[in-house]
Amino acid sequence: MSKEYDKLKKAYDCIREKTDFVPDVALILGSGLGALADEIEAEAIVDYSEIEGFPVSTVVGHKGRFVFGKIGQVKVVIMQGRVHYYEGYAMSDVVLPTRLMGMMGAKVLFLTNAAGGANLDFHAGGFMLIRDQIMAFVPNPLIGENIEELGPRFPDMSDLYDHELRSVIKKAAGRLGIALKEGVYVQFTGPSFETPAEVRMASMAGGDAVGMSTAVEAVAGHHMGMKICGISCISNKAAGLSETPLTHEEVQETADRVAPFFRELVKESIRDIGKAL
Ligand code: HPA
């Protein structure tokens, strides 16, 4: 057994001492979305600090806990607060929570984030369904001894963001009257925002939105067989595309402003995904 798998098993056993909940969907909440977890009736809550070996988030305003409950009829485990590479953790630790949720039984991984719009058609406050991603600017989370118990050494990535889930989410957005663009998410390490040149590069490479999370979680989840989907809240125009310098406060403010719509879209999508499972 690899060291990484051993660590995962220990963390998994810790959770299983507290709850035997088996989720259908794993949901990771990005900036501004945290309140979604407070809206559901929790069947169990496990703080990250209670889990052996779990990386605990250092970002101000990020809660750190798993919330277990239902959205409609769908059993979900929600990560209220994610772990970012820029906090200094090894990439294997950044994706440990994702893997744990997969081990608990989640078949679908639903990723959300706040991101900067690199596509000139995107405006702050809009939403982007993630069609594909570029992860080439951060270390691949599968580097190191392959965890054979989870998946293959060289996993295919040609339908990373599952086309059926994308179609379900698009329909949900249409029904709710929420405009949903579609595009490619590019992950950078952060914590500094990108330079205008990096944003131009991302855009020329086919990217539509830039951020500091998500792509590595998608790869780790897909590696172990979860179906992946994701939505970005475009909280700002990426660096170089707006007149004012970027601030975390601006990102937070916009994400908070549109959060009620974002939450509705995510919940409606999950209810529909449940029917398709
Ligand atoms: N860049 C990177 N991450 C982000 C941004 C951005 O412009 N906005 C929100 N998260």
List the helices and strands and how they pair.
Elements: H1 3-18, E1 25-29, H2 35-39, E2 42-47, E3 65-71, E4 74-80, H3 91-94, H4 96-104, E5 108-117, E6 126-134, H5 163-176, E7 180-187, H6 196-204, E8 209-211, H7 215-223, E9 227-237, H8 248-276
Parallel strand pairs: 1-4, 1-5, 5-9, 6-7, 7-8
Antiparallel strand pairs: 2-3, 3-4, 5-8, 6-9
Helix pairs in contact: 1-4, 5-8
The structure holds hypoxanthine.
Q: What report would you give on this structure?
A:
- Helices cover 34% and strands 24% of the residues.
- It is an alpha/beta fold and 277 residues long.
- The chain has a single domain, classed as Nucleoside phosphorylase domain (Rossmann fold, 3-Layer(aba) Sandwich).
- Strand 3 and strand 4 form a beta hairpin.
- It is globular.
- The chain starts with a helix and ends with a helix.
- The structure holds hypoxanthine (HPA).
- Hypoxanthine binds next to strand 5, strand 8 and strand 9.
